[in-house]
Sequence to fold (322 residues):
Amino acid sequence: MTREYVLPLADPNATLADVGGKGVGLARLANAGLPVPDGFHVTTEAYRRFVAENDLPPRLFAALQGVEARQPMTFQAASRVIGDLFAHAPMPQDIADAITRAYANLGHPPPPVAVRSSATAEDLPDLSFAGQQETFLNIQGAAATQDAVKRCWASLWTPRAIGYRTQHNLDHRAVALAVVVQILVHADAAGITFTANPVTGARDQIVINAAWGLGEAIVSGHVTPDTLVVDKASGRVIERDLADKQVMTVRVEGGTAEQPVPEHLRRAPTLSDEQVVELARLGAQIEKLYGTPMDIEWARAENKFAIVQARPITTLTEPPDH
Fold:
């Protein structure tokens, strides 16, 4: 019974409908032998069961009745009501037990994990859902992991997500959310690799952003990262812009926080030339796997790289010769 609620991260049968876009991408990377942290999926079936068991649909859609596309305040009002519904609804015991077992299988002592939303309505050619749902880092213990899963489910109904679906006439009734739980990489540096130049559209260049600490400071835009432009064929750095990296995301008790970067690291290069070559190699491998330019999130711990997300670049300009 529990298998429909929880799947191993590398399950070859993971589908977009079951584990969402982020989840299916990670399963594909793990099956291809790429360095993906171990973990598991909490499937959309678990989300639907939670919603049905707590009789949430009529109350969800009652809260959405007042939403109007041109009035953002209505998104916030609906989101507050729905957030309260999720917060007070108990997780069915068999789903909670399945999460507890999967979490226990990640290692002893139980490791801190990253708990990330994975929506079934992922980026489409003309729509981008990136950043609409929540991620929770440095979650420790089975009970805290269950709570983070519930908070991910609720984030399907943030003001931003409600507004986006409303403005694009997407059916609120059709959405569901999976959650990816992975061992947290104790990153000393993290960043993003684009396997084509997102500014110029050049397909023969790889662009790497890198900063100290966990990757959330880059993703949230709170830090200006180092930027390296790499020749894809040779791995040679052809442009290097070392930023004044003022903040970093670090682990703290029960989560993460932003802290100032130590003075001696602020303008220091985050990556060695050898590490740039390694990231470019991983990027090229992932691009070949997907057959299209990719946007890849990575983390580095103890001089080893882990891939924590990869998705096609949806907004790539055509290079000048097209």
